[in-house]
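Researcher: I'd like a structural prediction for the single chain below. Treat it as a standalone chain; there are no partners to consider.
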Amino acid sequence: MKVNLSTSVKLALAFGVIGIAAVGLAQSTSTYKGPKVEITYLHGFTGADRPVMEQLVKSFNDQNPNIVVKATAQPWGTTWNQIEPLVASGRAPDVAVINEDQVTRFIARGALTEITPSALRAAGIDKNRFFKPLFATADYKGKSYGVPVSSVAYVMFYNKDLLKKNGITAAPKTRAELLTAARACTTDKAGKKAGEAGFDGKNLETWGISLYNNWVGSRLAYSAILQNGGSLTDKDNNAAFNSPAAVDAVQFLVDLVQKENVARGNSTEEAELAAFSQGKVCMFPSGQWYLDRFEKNPSYALTFLPRIGTKQDATWGGSSHLTLPKQPAGYDRNKRSAALAFINWMTLPAQNLTWTSTGSLPVMKAVADDKKFDGQVISGIFDKLGSVYATSGFPWGGQVLGPFDAAWERAYLGKQEVKASLDQGVDEANKQIAQVRSQFK
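Model: Treating it as a single chain, here is the predicted structure.
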């Protein structure tokens, strides 16, 4: 999960988290009363976020003398390769952090242990304190397998000055407003506006919105599908991203390039980021992890993704969840209780607020509402954090997302009509699913 440190949030935390910290610590009395135990904790926070996680683990150990947490940080990819062999050999960590794009796969492969309602209650973990779709990311077939500790989301950055220069005084919130703003912002090298006679859509000086062809670009398409009430899969977890809702959503985005000429075709995330930074693009949809590049520049702001679809607010989100890898028969019950106590402590408001210093979004409303975020650029999306959805819930993530990303790229580049491209993607995805279905429960 891609996260950069947010300077302004770090400063806000450094100069006072007393209010919510006091609340969090008041709730943090451990539910574990057994003998001293040692538990192992595996996570992939190996970048600038690692010292924050290490300090949190140290604080937990200091506050809980009968539990010793031994943490190991390693690259996410290494963990994905090791989890199942470690479970099979009886050497799995007591607690492991699993990301949204992997968690359902490991659940359906039998590598993770359900966290039952009674276990949640015994550990003091109230699922209602978390944003509902975020907590549900680690649910499968009506059962819970993880508790969210970190989150990112797809947002829309925009250039306030460039919008205002072109007559747009507020960030767009609807499909119609986005199209109006994009048209107003688009000018060719000769100074002609989109729609004017002689306008050259292949030779733009400024343009309305950034679209691009990698997996990050396709998450805009996924978000639009969600906003239309659609999904990537059906009730049987077969690929279904060629529904009328999906076709409408993707067609609108492709039309921004192929019909409206308010976005560049055949562009990359890096090229669009550079153009946005240079003041050539009005709107740049992407992950909130780019906040640190723009938060100190008063010309830039961000907003929750406009409602490109027609039914609901929604956007893609990435997340990391604390999980319990499956253990061998005879596993020490005290370790399990201690592991759950650790998960509870790590996801209390005080700890989550501290974790936002890494660039993560709050995983619960209590943190999003903290006054320490007042005036922070990122807080502009906090009222809709309950509408952030991960690409999870189906165990064959790669078999769905790979063909979906490829379908988006073909349509965006104009290589294939939207409906035909999505149909081809669904056919390919379901062929791949059929090949691996027997490997999952």
